[in-house]
């Protein structure tokens, strides 16, 4: 019934998506830090414009007077080890600058006149061959802490990274690359070697599926958007019921030698999306914020998804089927919510899932919070 789709289109249209050159997106702001007393920074963010200019923004609970903006290629001890970029005023709520080091990831510290500080960076890592590679730092936890920048990353397949991207990523100091992909996915596009980073596969030995999209359509699995949503809801429940990927992930995170970890799959939205949600929930980030991070894949993948769906539409004339494919290309609240609901239904709570389902003791969870929040 349908003309056979090219392998490139198929890869972009099935469950896990496909990589494509990055386009520039504004990075979501770091979550607001709970104000404990008057005179504190409450939020900060960095956005990159189309010409590479960086826009640093912040807000405070009061006018903190004079401000200093520092930058560094490391998120640690920026005031001490970084460089002073500018002297300004907190009331201006921001500063625009050329990228002080285009060949490296940059972290900023803003210091108010009263001594209060806040650290921020671009959410999205500035790469040419990956568009859904981002930092999990900057999110507030329910106990008033903040997830550290530059320690935990999420991404998609890395095989499209350019030579300059590889240098950029190497300079980020990554220690561990966790790849959730099956053998078929890895054989289709292997990860490049990142010097200094160990490579860990969680699904090695799983051949994976090479199912033709036309066969899936003929089977009725992708007859409309509702069928695609049901498929993804079931997939997310299954990952909670058999969480072997995430048990291994938690073990890796508990080892300080792995700080500087990126987890990824093919599109960086499903297996990686749930992995990122589990990390943030374990660190104490609230469900609403976790959902916002999950849904942000739709922003970062928007252009690539649009092109892929347009290509599919040229060969698949049934708009209900196109709607199903479109649903698979992105993420929806129902997908992650199904996983969260399954945690609660099966274990009674998210905390119980972390302790019983993933095997993380209270002591280990406290250690994780100490390592990855401040």
Report on this structure:
Strand 10 (176-179), helix 4 and strand 11 form a beta-alpha-beta unit. Mean pLDDT is 89; it is low at 1-27 and 32-37. By secondary structure, the chain is of the alpha/beta class. The chain is built from 15 helices and twelve strands. Helix content is 38%, strand content 17%. The protein has a five-stranded mixed sheet with strand order 8-9-12-10-11, covered by helices on one side. Strands 4-3-6-7 form a four-stranded antiparallel sheet. Strands 1-2-5 form a three-stranded antiparallel sheet, with no helix packed on it. Helix 6 runs parallel beside helix 12 (319-329) and helix 8 (271-283) packs antiparallel against helix 9.
Mean pLDDT: 89
**Contiguous uncertain segments of 5+ residues:** 1-27, 32-37
Q: What is the number of E strands? A: 12
Alpha plus pi helix count: 15
Short characterization:
The chain contains 15 helices and twelve strands. By secondary structure, the chain is an alpha/beta fold. α4 (183-188) links the parallel β10 (176-179) and β11.
List the helices and strands and how they pair.
Blueprint: H1 7-13, E1 41-48, E2 54-60, E3 66-72, H2 78-81, E4 83-89, E5 94-97, E6 107-112, E7 117-121, E8 134-135, E9 152-155, H3 163-171, E10 176-179, H4 183-188, E11 198-201, H5 213-219, H6 225-241, H7 244-253, E12 261-264, H8 271-283, H9 287-295, H10 297-300, H11 302-313, H12 319-329, H13 333-347, H14 350-357, H15 362-372
């Amino acid at each position: 019934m349908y003309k056979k789709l090219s392998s490139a289109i198929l890869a972009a249209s099935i469950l896990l998506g496909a990589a494509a050159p990055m386009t520039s997106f504004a990075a979501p702001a770091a979550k607001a830090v709970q104000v404990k007393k008057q005179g504190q920074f409450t939020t900060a963010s960095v956005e990159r414009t189309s010409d590479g200019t960086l826009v640093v923004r912040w807000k405070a609970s009061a006018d903190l007077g004079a401000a200093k903006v520092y930058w560094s290629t490391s998120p640690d001890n920026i005031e001490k080890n970084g460089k002073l970029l500018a002297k300004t005023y907190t009331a201006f709520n921001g500063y625009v600058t050329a990228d002080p080091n285009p060949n490296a990831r940059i972290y900023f510290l803003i210091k108010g006149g009263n001594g209060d500080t806040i650290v921020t960076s671009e959410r999205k890592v500035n790469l040419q061959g990956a568009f859904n590679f981002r930092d999990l730092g900057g999110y507030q936890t329910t106990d008033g802490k903040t997830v550290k920048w530059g320690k935990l990353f999420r991404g998609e397949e890395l095989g499209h990274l350019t030579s300059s991207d590889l240098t950029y990523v190497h300079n980020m100091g990554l220690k561990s690359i966790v790849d959730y992909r099956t053998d078929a996915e890895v054989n289709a596009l292997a990860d490049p070697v990142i010097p200094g980073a160990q490579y860990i596969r969680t699904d090695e030995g799983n051949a994976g599926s090479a199912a033709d999209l036309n066969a899936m359509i003929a089977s009725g699995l992708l007859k409309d958007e509702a069928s695609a949503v049901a498929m993804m809801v079931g997939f997310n429940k299954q990952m909670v019921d058999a969480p072997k990927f995430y048990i291994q992930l938690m073990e890796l995170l508990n080892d300080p030698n792995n700080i500087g970890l990126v987890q990824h799959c093919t599109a960086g939205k499903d297996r990686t999306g749930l992995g990122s949600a589990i990390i943030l929930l374990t660190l104490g980030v609230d469900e609403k914020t976790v959902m916002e991070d999950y849904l942000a894949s739709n922003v970062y993948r928007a252009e690539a998804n649009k092109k892929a769906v347009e290509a599919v539409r040229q060969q698949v004339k049934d708009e209900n089927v196109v709607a199903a494919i479109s649903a698979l290309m992105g993420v929806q609240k129902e997908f992650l919510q199904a996983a969260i609901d399954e945690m609660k239904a099966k274990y009674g709570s998210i905390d119980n899932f972390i302790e019983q389902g993933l095997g993380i003791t209270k002591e280990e969870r406290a250690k994780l919070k100490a390592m990855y929040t401040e």
